[in-house]
């Protein structure tokens, strides 16, 4: 069984070496032909389950997202995740609109900001958590203001050192998720972040 595994790995390695040799091209290959060969072999390797990696485990390009809450949230459960369900920017694809969580693609310090809006007489108190540990809080509290006297809004920010695979999300602080007004277009409550 072990011999078969190593024989398979050796065969794949030999295939990859031959592909690399072939991709480098011949004297007669045009630059476009070399690029075409490279793209074809990259597709084959991806199909075999190989994942492209960066040197020194660094991701190239930007890591940044901008999300917002479309619709309203009411009477949320204790420590329930606030899912900002609409994304206008997701460079690096690190934010997930289904789970509401940002997963760090690389070790780094990241900056996060979130804003919530609630009605007068209501409240929506949240916290940002790193792997389920609270880091910072946001208190949008309209209690004490008469009903129909407008809205209350607040924002919070946090710089957080993360390891690759760590998760960040916004959740209600205890059971204080009474009411958040996201709006029909997701214009009032938002969550964003980027790698510093």
Architecture overview:
With 196 residues, the chain is an alpha+beta fold. It contains two helices and twelve strands; from the N terminus they run ααββββββββββββ. The protein has a five-stranded antiparallel sheet, with no helix packed on it.
Layout of SSEs?
Layout: H1 2-23, H2 31-47, E1 64-68, E2 72-74, E3 86-91, E4 95-96, E5 101-103, E6 108-119, E7 123-130, E8 133-141, E9 151-162, E10 167-177, E11 179-181, E12 190-195
Antiparallel strand pairs: 1-3, 1-12, 2-11, 4-5, 5-10, 6-9, 6-12, 7-8, 7-10
How would you briefly describe this protein structure?
This protein has helices at residues 2-23, 31-47, and strands spanning 64-68, 72-74, 86-91, 95-96, 101-103, 108-119, 123-130, 133-141, 151-162, 167-177, 179-181, 190-195. It is an alpha+beta fold.
What is the beta-strand fraction? 35-45%
Give average pLDDT, whole number: 85
- Oligomeric state as shown: single chain
* SSE sequence, one letter per element: HHEEEEEEEEEEEE
Biggest beta-sheet profile: 5 strands, antiparallel
Tell me the radius of gyration: 24 Å
Helix percentage: 10-25%
Total beta-strand segments: 12
How far do the termini sit from each other? Answer: 47 Å
Shape: elongated
Adjacency order of strands in the biggest sheet:
3-1-12-6-9
Tell me the structural class. Answer: alpha+beta
Helical run tally: 2
Spans of at least 5 consecutive residues with low confidence: none
Properties at a glance:
elongated, 5-stranded antiparallel beta sheet, about 200 residues, 12 strands, single chain, alpha+beta
């Amino acid at each position: 069984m072990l011999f078969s595994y190593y024989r398979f790995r050796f065969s794949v390695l030999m295939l990859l070496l031959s592909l690399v040799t072939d991709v480098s091209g011949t004297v007669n290959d045009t630059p476009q032909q070399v690029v075409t060969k490279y793209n074809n072999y990259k597709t084959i390797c991806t199909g075999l389950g190989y994942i492209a990696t960066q040197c020194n485990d660094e991701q190239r390009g930007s890591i940044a997202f901008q999300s917002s809450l479309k619709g309203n949230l009411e009477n949320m459960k204790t420590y329930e995740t606030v899912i900002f369900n609409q994304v206008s920017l997701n460079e690096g694809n690190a934010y997930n609109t289904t789970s509401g969580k940002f997963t760090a693609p690389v070790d780094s310090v990241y900056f996060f900001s979130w804003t919530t809006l609630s009605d007068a007489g209501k409240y929506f108190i949240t916290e940002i958590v790193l792997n389920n540990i609270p880091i910072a809080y946001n208190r949008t509290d309209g209690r004490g203001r008469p009903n129909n006297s407008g809205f209350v809004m607040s924002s919070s920010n946090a710089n957080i050192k993360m390891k690759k695979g760590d998760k960040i999300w916004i959740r209600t602080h205890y059971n204080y998720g009474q009411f958040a007004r996201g709006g029909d277009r997701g214009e009032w409550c938002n969550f964003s972040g980027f790698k510093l």
